[in-house]
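@channel sequence for tomorrow's demo:
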Amino acid sequence: MSYKMVILDLDDTLLLNNGKIPEGNKKALKLAQEKGVKVVLASGRPEFAIKDIANELELEKYGGYVIAYNGSRVIDYKTKEVLYEIDLTREQVAELYDLAIKHENYIHTYVGDEILTCHDNPYTYIESEITGMKIKMCDDFVASLPEKCVKVIMLQAPEHLKEAQEMLKPKIKDKMTMTITKPYFLEFMNKDVDKSKSIVRLCEKLGIDLKDIIAIGDSYNDLSMIEIAGVGIAMENAVEEVKKIADYITDTNENEGVAKAIEKYILK
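structure tokens (generated this afternoon):
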């Protein structure tokens, strides 16, 4: 079968643990794009923290796309046009702040290309290191919020955060999308946001059937896109929930699992 699009998570999927793209993945993706396959980078990361990876993979040259903030933004990387955007309201973020304090979690969001927080904590520094974004400390989190926020993250030790997620489910219900992206990141977006919904919108725009796409990921926020793809692929280092629903399990991110999957399904 001739697949038309490959959708890739970044951290722990496309990228090595040091944040770099392994040469095998880069070569395979270039060959796929030369065959006319659209490459889409779909990540919880802000757009700011995806652009260097998109540039390295030459998405502008080949007409690729970026899905940022778990689906809150869809960007045509050739034209830089934002095709879709949806946010949380200031009131929703204020509610999340109150819940974070109640359940003893740290919290941050984004203002422009900066991370906004009122808590000096190790997990926000991890986010800063991953994304390259500067941290903006404030005394009053709610008073410092813009009218709309693209995404909010609660942060804590993994065991505490899993417990908090369960306790928050009755409060959040269907008002927002809530997902763990890394063991210490619990992310909140508009209720109409997840990777699969943005992928469906993009495929409709491009006239591509979902059976003609491949999606590769490792974590909870990748579940929906792996479910809807013609071929859903889990990394060997993926969480068990992702492996259970995948059509195929490739090698780890440290062993060029993305390249091996592309060679099997696109370049064979």
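heads up for whoever presents: The chain has a mean pLDDT of 96.
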